[in-house]
Amino acid sequence: MEDKAALLQKLEHKNARLSALVKKYKQSHHLQNALIQLSEQASTVAELNLLYPAIHNILQDYVPSKSFYVVLLNQFTNTLELSYFADEKDGISIPLNQDHNFSQGVTGYVFKQGKTTYYQGNEMQKAADKGHFKLLGSPAEHWVGVPVYREKQIIGVLVAQSYDKKQSYSEQQIELLEVMSLYLATAIERVKKRELLESEVKIRTRALTQSNEALNLEVEQHKKTLERQHILFKISELATQSKHIEEVYQQVHEIIKSITYAKNLYIALYDKKSGWLNFPYCVDEFNPNTQPRPFAKGYSELVLSTEKTQLIDSIRAEKLIKSGVVERPELVPEQQIATSWLGAPLKTSQGVIGLIVCQAYQNKHIFNHDDCELITFVSHQIASVLQTHLASQAIKRSNQNLEHRVAEKTKEIRQTNMHLQMQIEERKKIEQQLYHDAHHDSLTGLPNRSLFLTQLEKTLQHYQRYPEQEFAVLFIDLDKFKDINDQLGHQAGDQFLIGVAESFSQCIREHDLLARLGGDEFVILLTHLTERQQAEDVAKRIIKLMKKPFCMKGICVQSGASVGITYSKTHYKHTDEIIRDADAAMYYAKNAGRSRFEFFHPLLNVTTNNQEFEASHHLDALPMHFRSSEIITLNEQFQSEVLIEAFGEHPVLGSTSFDILKKFAADKAQQLEVELLLLDQACKQAQAANLGVALLPCSALLLEKIEFQALCLTLQSQINKKQLCLLFNEQEIRYASAVQISNLKQLSDQGYAIGLNDFAKDRCELNLLTELNFDYLLLSSTFSKRVLQQQSYDLQLQGVLAITKIKQVKVIAKGPSILNFRALLDTHGLSLFVGKQHAINMLSPADATLDSSEQQQN
């Protein structure tokens, strides 16, 4: 028994020793890994402000150090300064705003003591009460400070602290902090040296750049020299070219412009025999047509009399006037007096023949001596050129006299030819007028049916070759036009049609075509379209324009416009099909209430009898199914929300969204019954699929007084309110009644999530976002695309995002091609998008109703 007890004692001793060795080796391993990572960071990090976060990340693997900071000694001010700070409670302003910063606190105490200090619980408060230091910031439950040394000299303190009582620091963790502090100074020196090296590289680069700039300046000066030499070559060419004298003056002006400021320039010629100055060329801000004048006491006369270049500024001008050398006319306004004037004589072998002058007003330019020397040199070259051309001009005058006599003799022949030409032009005008009258409406001047069909035929042929270049036809019928004729007379009706034609022309682009078919029917051909919304925008502008009353003879009549729209389709083969479909859509819009627009729909051409027609699209008889779309981010990360939309299988339309099918409901009761059933089925689908939040589009009909009670009963049968969000169309909410708005607010108050669907499709109503508490906002695809095209829409989006951020509304971009623009829209502030659709099977409304009735009977 004693041998066994001794054996057990030996084994326990060995186990304890092995545990200690394992713990020691584990600690050594942690130290080694930490030092290796610190060395790697010191070798790779380029700046000190990046080194400290890296050290913090290393420590977090081994030490609970969410609150961590480093304080180093500033050698110049001899004060402790914060190099890195991360704290769970205090912001960086707390330590910086404290008196004496760190020198009077526990950090300064560790710096003065020069040894590691660890406080737990109230130990720090007790030490502060003894006067060892002052408490700064929020008190920590565990605080450890380790001095940082460089060559046996303390340079700072490394501190880790914890506000959690359970999160203390072990001896091994404190030892790790001490080891890290030993290597911290070396790492800081390595990073500082790297920063110094990069600074030296930048200085050398700057020096090389300056040297390169000096070289470029020298090259520019050499270029200017070559340019001046090239200018002299141009002047020499003027002497050999047989140009008109006015063209020579213009060429001289261009040459002067290339060497100095010459916005205002004139050339004066002096006739010594008559004593008059002529100005054959003058370009001036105030006096473009200078008249000849006799020799007087002006700046020009000073140049001619001295035969020297004169540079006159405001100061010299006053001196010349006071001395009587120059006399200035009294009626010249002050702003028309040159503030800098430069004139050079035109000297030839026969003497001075004139001068060339550049001048500047209102201190726009100040001529200097370089300009003076340059224009003097150029004027000598120009003088001989002008002398040559003036001589040739005299010869040309004699030739012109001869040509004048010849011209007089041929005048009768020219008049005969002109009369014949006028007859030809008159016949062409008559032919053009006949063609115009044949293809345009005599009242409004618009293209008529013939010209419109011709252009539509060309557009259709072009579309068949290039299907990507889409078009649309708008068939417009004016409402209550007969009332205008009956009440105001046919003359007023004609004036009304003329005004309508002018107004419609302002609603379309230059390359679009507006035509009058006859009576009060107009058509518009829109080409180069990219989406249906563009045709819809034109129709809305026309309808809005026609809502204005037409007044004449003190009587005002309210008119309007019913617009039918057909969009380009590949199955169109003849223009008659296009006109037929646009006309059918127009009659549907007129029968649906007038002053509205409708796109052509295949149902409009169904030729079955009324009973079959009504039965073919009874909503409660159509098979229904759901399609779901996940809400995703730019990186295609799925969110908790899913958009669920209802679709019906129509015998004519095929698979069509419920938003379109509900337009053909027999009455409100049928639409309400089907929509509530779909809502119930969608909620069950969401619960079965365990969706986070199901976004369900609903119509504003559910918000009316009686219908809202049925909606509340349906919603009360659902188990989880937070799993459901009702989306209402933004256009319907914009025109909703006070009762509907009140019921919408009541839904939100009852805890149901609500949202706006197809927001900003035609305009951006920010007041809806501020008046109601929405949880979700689905942007229309039209608005999302236009954000990328026009800056005004981006500004509207920023306003939407600002309001939704304040009201904590989630903004989601939707549309069939929105996935292609996610990266671009993300730069504009959008982060959530509607993903691809997936089909969800469900019962038709008829089957679902049957099942529910059977369950009640059972």
Shape: flat
Alpha-carbon Rg, integer: 46 Å
Query: Helicity range of the residues?
Result: 40-55%
Strand content: 15-25%
Name the strands of the widest sheet in spatial order: 19-20-22-23-24-25-26-27
Average pLDDT number: 81
Number of continuous helical runs? 27
Enumerate the spans where pLDDT stays under 50 for 5 or more consecutive residues: 607-616, 842-858
Structure, explained:
With 858 residues, the chain is of the alpha+beta class. It has an 8-stranded mixed β-barrel, surrounded by 4 helices. Strands 8-7-6-11-10-9 form a 6-stranded antiparallel sheet. A 5-stranded antiparallel sheet has the order 2-1-5-4-3, with helices on both faces. Helix 1 (2-44) packs parallel to helix 6 (171-240). The radius of gyration is 46 Å and the shape is flat.
Blueprint of the fold:
Blueprint (H helix, E strand, L loop, with lengths): L1 H43 L3 H13 L6 E8 L4 E8 L6 H5 L8 H8 L3 E4 L2 H7 L12 E9 L2 E10 L8 H70 L4 H13 L6 E8 L4 E8 L9 E2 L4 H8 L3 E4 H10 L14 E11 L2 E11 L7 H41 L1 H29 L9 H17 L4 E10 L1 H8 L1 H16 L7 E6 L2 E9 L2 H15 L3 E3 L2 E3 L2 E8 L7 H17 L5 E3 L10 H7 L7 E9 L5 E13 L3 E4 H4 L6 H21 L4 E6 L6 H12 L7 E6 H5 L3 H12 L3 E7 L6 H6 L4 E4 L1 H9 L1 H16 L3 E4 L8 H6 L4 E9 L4 H13 L1
Helix pairs in contact: 1-2, 1-6, 6-7, 6-10, 7-10, 13-14, 19-20, 24-25
